[in-house]
Amino acid sequence: MSSQDKPLVTFAVFAYNQEQFIREAIEGAFSQTYEPLEIILSDDCSSDRTFEIMQEMVANYKGKHTVIARRNPVNLMTAMHVSWVASEAKSQLLILNAGDCICHPQRVELIVQEWSKAGYKSPCLIHSDLHDFSGTVKKPNLTQQLTSFDYEERIKLLEKWLYKNQGMPFLAPTCAYTKDLFDNFAPLYSGVCEDGILFIRALMVASICYINKPLVKEIQLGVGTNHSYRNIDKWNKILMSRILTKYIIYKDCQNLRFLLDQDKYNLLSWSKSQVNNLSSLFLTSNDNLSIMSFILSILVNPSMGNFKNKIYFILVFLGIYELCKSKREATSRRIVRRIVQKLPKPTRNFLRALSNYLSRINHWFIIIRQIKAKTVGDNTNLLLSALYSLIVSSRNLLEWQDPQLIKDANVTVRNIGEFHIRAYSDDLWHVLPFREQAVLQTIRNKLQMGDFFIDSGANIGFYSVLASKLVGDTGKVLSIEMMPDTAAILNHHLQLNQCTNVEVIEFALSDQDNQEVIATVQEGKFGQATISKVDSQKKTDKEIAVKTITLDTLTKDISHIRLIKMDLEGAELQALQGAVLTLQKTDYLIFEERTREKEHNPVFQFLKKSGFELHQIDGNNWLAYRKGL
After folding, report:
1. Which DSSP symbol is given to 8?
2. Residue ranges of the alpha helices (H) in 447-513?
3. Alpha-carbon torsion (340, 276, 181, 95), positive or negative
4. Is 93 in the same domain as 126?
5. Tally of structural domains, the chain
6. Cα 18 off chain centre by
7. For the ranges 90-99, 344-353, 568-577, which has the lowest average pLDDT?
């Protein structure tokens, strides 16, 4: 097979304060025989010369591989560092290499061969033997191939790891992961342990392949294993990692309930309960002392940024810690909110302002990573908009503000498509994949080639463009947007992305056909247009007369609908009342509803009477699904 026919692979070297070893690790990466290969040299904000050495070696590299050096703005620690690089990798297979490990020149070649034997199955975890510091070959505890899903067998493996002191089933420095183990799950939050979480995910959904050959050699003794509880700094890191591991598995359970078959979900739930028990035992020893010492270590750690940033991080940590000790299934955000509510009002306002400002900084970091400008001018516009937002918006930090551009720009959103973003509007916010990650992932998991998808309240077409690619030429997308100006942008985006299988309907969904109603939208908030009556309209609200149509009318010739996404800003009930026949032939419905009162909510009651079960997939979004699916 020629290199043109082979899949692109990402080889990532992770380092933190490893200037003594990093050259050998990078030389091992450069020596790889496989092509095509993307090599990412990633530094976790080292305080020594590690990153400078990376830059120097990239500048002097003359080989065939694509090589880049990058650096985290702060020290993220291993788990978040790996997660961040995975989000930037361009391939579907990520091979990890520690900054103090040397790899065999054919490591990538052999891993891809093993992956190809599994039919390039995704998700997948591939691991191998290891040469330790003394040259002795170390073998993992798991040397069998797990290419089929056996629930009982995988439960036994998990029990060995958690309770029988048999260690991890594989050697973490030798591992390669497909990106599904990152993209389809909650993010890896900061901590020193990424391998435990990825192991549980792999047991839950992945093929696990083993190569009976040492492909990695440790340069120093005890890579990744020297965690002494007597060292207070290491104790704090391990403590935080255990807490965050539990929180991440909790989020995996919450987000993936309807994306996995029953056996795989049972395994995930079992994993969650066992890690809960293990964390409880772990936290009973030196509990208060460890928490206080961890907080003090954050306050004196210069890599955590300024004092405000440290206080914010500590509050989030305490919220996650409370979640770990609580029997209630509440999110850390709610617990943090309860803690903050007990504080004096000036302190609450300060924390709220700080949280909003940090959120804005974080959002612009993500925007720069996930969105690529089409021209140099558009790229300059993005950077100036970020700067403008962070300076001007600081005048009013108590109010939430969407990230906005100061000039129109054409951009490409990673893994979605091309979009034209209007200045001083919420367009940018509505094309960000992280904004509704659970919704995005649910749509990706539910839609297949040939399916029929309805995007009601399509706005500028983010989900319509995505669905068009998922259902292919044999499927169809019905994209409904009532506002003429927004519908024009929607049509433009469909043309840009060559979405020939999408039909745009410029009507408002309601319970009656051909009625004229008034739609209102606040200037710049085009994604919040509604025909639902709002008592406190603002002077800047724009009003426009639109015609109504029912979903039953639109789908009278359609025999089966796989998925409907409905975001109508309060007009969902009217639309559902005009979709009685449509719902009878629909498998799934995603809709937004802010209330938590399921018993008395008319939308919930209507859907239950129509034969649907309900599941909350994130803060305000719900999945309605037919019983038995």
Report:
1. P
2. 462-471, 484-496
3. positive
4. yes
5. 4
6. 29
7. 344-353
- H helical segments located in 195-344: 195-205, 232-256, 262-283, 287-299, 307-325, 332-341
How would you label 7-26 residue by residue, b for 16+ Cβ within 10 Å and e otherwise? eebbbbbbbbbbbebbbebb
Domain annotation covers residue 447: yes
pLDDT on residue 150: 67
Measured between alpha carbons, how far is residue 235 from residues 220, 246, 314, 324 in Å? 21, 17, 17, 17
Choose the final residue of a domain: 218, 248, 283. 218
């800003």: which residue's tokens?
A: 569
Given a cut of 80, whether residue 160 has pLDDT beyond it is no
Do the bridges between strand 561-566 and strand 612-616 make them parallel or antiparallel, or are there none, so unpaired? unpaired
- 576 shares its domain with 620: yes
Given a cut of 80, is residue 466 above it in pLDDT? yes
User: What span, in angstroms and rounded, lies between the C-alpha atoms of 360 and 356?
Assistant: 6
Count of all residues that appear for the chain in the document: 629
| Range with the largest mean pLDDT of 225-234, 367-376, 421-430, 526-535 | 421-430
Predicted pLDDT of residue 331? 44
Backbone angles phi, psi at 146, to 5 degrees: -115, 85
Please report the pLDDT score of residue 124 as a whole number: 86
Same structural domain, 375 and 295: no
Of these ranges, 95-104, 126-135, 356-365, the one predicted with the greatest mean pLDDT is 95-104
**CA–CA distances in Å: residue 409 to residues 78, 459, 466:** 36, 17, 20
Supply the range of the domain harboring residue 253. Answer: 232-342
Q: Could you tell me if residue 174 is inside a domain?
A: yes
| Residue found by looking up tokens 């900061």 in the block | 190
CATH of the domain at 449: 3.40.50.150
The position carrying tokens 């490409």 is: 412
- Same domain flag for 451 and 386: no
- Per-residue tokens: 522: 């606040």
Q: Which residues pair with 131 in a beta bridge?
A: 137, 217
